[in-house]
Amino acid sequence: MKIRWKILLILLTFAMLPLILIKAYGLDTLRDLGSDLQIQTRVTLLERARSSLADIAEGTAARINLEDLLYRTSIKTMQGEAENLLSKKEILTLAHPPFITSPEGVENMPTLYTHPDYKKSTLRGRGMRSSRENKTSHVKKGALVDIPISLNHISFWLPQGLSKRAAMPSIRKLAPMLPTFQSCSQTLNKLALWQEITLENGLQVSYPAHNAFPPRYDPRISSWYKEVKDTLKTFWMHPVPEPATKSLCYRLSSPLFNEKDKFIGVVSLVVPVGIAINSALLMSTEKNVKIMMVVSDHSTTSNKEKLLVIGRNKGSAEENISANSKGHLWQAPPKPEWIYEDTPEFATLVDDVDNQRSGVLQMDCEGIPSLWTYSPINKDMALLIVTPVIDFTAEADKAEQYVSKSIARQIKDTTLIALAIISALGIVAYFASQNFASPIRKISEAVTKVGQGDWDARADVNSHDELGDLADSFNLMVPQLRERSSILQALSLADEAQQNLLPKSTPQVSGAEIGAKCVFSEKTGGDYFDFIGCATCGEDIFATAIGDVSGHGISAALLMTSARAYIRALTGQGRPLVEIVSKVNSLVTTDCAQTGHFMTLFTAICDTNKKTLNWIRAGHDPALIYTPETDEFEELIGTGLAIGVDEYYLYKENFTQLKSGQIVVLYTDGIWEAHSPKGEQFGKSQLREIIRDYYDKPAQQIAEIIHKQVSDYRRGLPLEDDCTVIIIKFL
């Protein structure tokens, strides 16, 4: 903000204050009258709403308790009948072939018909190809489609791995469950979607009969089955999408035991979340009303005072959807969603949910005054409806608008006076600011000159106030900036020199294809790689090395440069590999004696004609050998101490026989230690997957792909370490 505007604001503050006081005094009476009218109307309307909602919530809680007893009685009946049938030694002969469904197909399917209470949330969308079996390709994604069922049959689901022959004894024993299922269905009167029995061998019995399970469905890996098996207790599970209908359902499950009290399976009632909820509570489907199913979670201290949203009602404009099908209109949040308000009222709400109490509270929701209506469903779950107070106080708001219009008319009368005062003060502020702006303008001009490269520019301000102090500070800062610029230029030259030391391209040798790439985490880095030919050994033989100096920056770059010079001076003359590495170690140890730095190194001599690899690993990550023919990886581990630690360390040369098609991968730890924004490492397993997926690509392309996927994994995070990789494909 310019100084003239600051002066204007100061003058306005003092000039307008008397005018504001006079104006406020004249409006106080009318404002108080309107406020009293609005408050009294608002209080009356809110009290009526609170009383009505509280009565409905209490009625819903009582109904839920009764329905819970009905559910538990029904599942007890199913449990007793199933255990009785399964405990019988004799296996009955079935009067009719059983309706069996499995990933391989359907057997003995009875006549199925659509029922308004059984619908599936389709995952298909427009543009999907239709087929003779698929009649829903034109349906929008998320729409409800009918599931064919039979109320006169039981369906037996055989998951992957369970044969019909292995399942038939259990099927023959459980086939007589049909009358029990039908009796429980009449008792529950549409309060349950499915009645199911799941055995340890994976067989699942479902009533009504249907063929809607996904091909890979195995109930034994479901959380509800595992928890019943672990606890051996009857309990309600939190709502999750049910596999057959894709709708949000909760499940009452109870264990099954044989005559020796050994666990043999689970009997369940699957209930859509909307079934047990009083429709009177779902008063509105307006966008500003939030209808949720919540549960308290005390597993962690941070979530103890919060409520977890496990389902949201998405509403429906279709009038022909049955009451039972409204259970399909609930969706689970795509990721964990928590509700929290830092108020005593919210703490009361959490306590009521914990203790299965219903009620109505008034508090803000995301800054909006709201009524929170809640009613227990079962155990620690509750239905929560958050309605903005404004939906109940429309009449009070109209009164407030009337008062606001009256006040606006009086404000209009005083606006002309205020504009006149502001205009006069603006003129005064303009001329007064000129005296203040001159020193600032000089400093600004000096800054511009420095930005253009004039390091001799100075701000000539003769003032004894803060502006003068600012000019003096600027004049002292310019020489320091000049010195820093020189340092940065020198670092840039060092970076350019180091980049020139790395190979510009990979060598072209017969019998092998080579690719390599190095990316530094800073301007200068400590990673090193090289390829060295051997004129006395033959065109098919070359040496390669990859290393990583401890630390980063200038010191690491200098040590890398020295090590490169030593390796190049000793390699390529036909000397034994042990002699070369030992001599380099001696020289580097001498250089690093007082610095504490060291260097890991993996060096190898490759004979592409004989397809042999003589190598030494000096503390570096083991090289990988991938064989596409067998899809196997081998690590060249060996033994060896890092270069620069022990001057007299004795290294051991290793030999590996290779064959055509194998790929040798050398890399530094910056590749697999790269972190994602979540703090997870890229890992060696992902590196292996890249080699496995792209082994048929050119060697240089594989190196580029590795670096790209490491960069994508970081998602914009800076490199923490240098990244280098060498790919050698034996042809």
From TrEMBL:
What UniProt keywords apply to this chain's record, in alphabetical order? Hydrolase, Membrane, Transmembrane, Transmembrane helix
An example GO biological process term is: signal transduction
Name the segments for region: Disordered: 111-137
Q: Which residues form the HAMP domain?
A: 434-486
List all membrane-crossing ranges.
263-283, 414-432
Keyword Membrane in annotation: yes
| InterPro entries (alphabetical) | Bact_Sigma-Reg, HAMP_dom, PPM-type-like_dom_sf, PPM-type_phosphatase-like_dom
Q: Name one GO molecular function term.
A: phosphatase activity
Q: Which GO terms describe its cellular component?
A: membrane
Q: List, alphabetically, the CDD domains matched.
A: HAMP, PDC1_HK_sensor
Q: Is Cell wall biogenesis/degradation one of the keywords UniProt gives this record?
A: no
User: What protein does this entry describe?
Assistant: Sigma-B regulation protein RsbU (Phosphoserine phosphatase)
The organism is Desulfovibrio gilichinskyi
